[in-house]
Amino acid sequence: MPMEATELRAALEAILFLSSDPVRVDDLSESLDETKDAVSAQLEEIKRVLDDHVGGFALEQAAGGWRLTTRAEHDSVLKKYFAKKGENRLSLAALETLAIVAYRQPITAPEVSDIRGVNATGVIRTLLERRMIRVAGRKNVVGSPFLYRTTKDFLVHFGLNDIRDLPRLEEFGDLIGENINDDLVAAINAAEPGTDNVIETESVAVSEEQVEEQLHEQTAAEFEGQREDPAEVESEESREAEPEEAREEQPSGQLDEQPNEQPDEQAAVAAEESQLESPTSGEVNEE
């Protein structure tokens, strides 16, 4: 038997109050044994009442569902009261990396590093732990690097109902409350859009160990690349290609000393043979 409108509204308010995630109309309709239209109508009524009588709560759509949230104007009060300013806050590097993934997904870790101009594997690891991004397959290129996309938690964190609700890239700083470097915005705009050249579907399970291993390999590869000094490599190659005669003319060194040792040895051997063949002084006197 359908509930009365006021009873249904009260039940929805209780569920919304206790739910930590956005609740979907389909789930509410099924659990309360009510039609979707009836549930949607009461959700809209709750939203209207909260908007008309401005208080500490608001009802908003996020990640395909509805949730109760505090109003933005109370953020400073809440931070001060709970003494959590800065706690669980993403760093600027993480926000920049998140912007790259959000606007160029799906994207690989090396591609993110190329756009940012620095190694981004550590930040990607942090975003994975915070569940802001997820593995969405592998790119069909050499090495088969993982592709990354934003998550439902990303939508909830920034109050977006769908990824298509993202503002223009130039306005992303307003959404996250930080100023994004103009050079980074230009680099993201210049980068190619995410690829569909995927060799694994999003449904393929990927272990944390696999992700960690690939991120570690990429970090090691970039570190080795940074350790090689092009000038030193060029100097080594030119030294190897140097003619033999030029090396023999060097004033000192082990290569110069070795050729001189052979004539001395030959002279010593010749002198010894000459001494054996010639008569001794005593034999001459006796004759």
Any overview of this molecule?
The protein is mainly α. The protein folds into two domains: 5-73, Orthogonal Bundle (Arc Repressor Mutant, subunit A), CATH 1.10.10.10; 92-227, Winged helix-like DNA-binding domain superfamily/Winged helix DNA-binding domain (Arc Repressor Mutant, subunit A, Orthogonal Bundle). It is 57% helix and 9% strand. The protein is built from 15 helices and five strands. It has helices at 5-18, 25-32, 36-52, 75-82, 92-104, 109-116, 121-129, 152-157, 172-176, 182-190, 208-227, 230-240, 244-248, 254-277, 281-286; strands spanning 57-62, 65-70, 107-108, 133-138, 146-150. Strands 3-5-4 form a three-stranded antiparallel β-sheet. It has a two-stranded antiparallel sheet with strand order 1-2. A hairpin with a 7-residue loop joins strand 4 and strand 5 (146-150). It starts with a helix and ends with a helix. The model is unreliable at 200-204, 226-240, 244-261 and 278-287 (pLDDT under 50).
List keywords for this structure.
mainly alpha, Arc Repressor Mutant, subunit A, 287 residues, 5 strands, 2 domains, disordered C terminus, two-stranded antiparallel ribbon, three-stranded antiparallel beta sheet, elongated
The percentage helix is 55-70%
Order of helices and strands: HHHEEHHEHHEEHHHHHHHH
**Shape annotation:** elongated
Low-pLDDT stretches are 200-204, 226-240, 244-261, 278-287
| Tally of alpha and pi helices | 15
State mean pLDDT (0 to 100 scale).
Answer: 77
Strand content: 5-15%
In the CATH classification, which architecture of the largest domain applies?
A: Orthogonal Bundle
The gyration radius over C-alpha positions equals: 37 Å
Order of strands, main sheet, comes to 3-5-4
Q: Quick one: CATH class of the largest domain?
A: Mainly Alpha
User: What is the number of beta strands?
Assistant: 5
Question: Can you summarize the main beta sheet?
Answer: 3 strands, antiparallel
Number of domains: 2
Structural class: mainly alpha
Distance between the termini: 148 Å
> What is CATH's topology name of the largest domain?
Arc Repressor Mutant, subunit A
Would you identify the CATH H-level superfamily of the largest domain? Winged helix-like DNA-binding domain superfamily/Winged helix DNA-binding domain
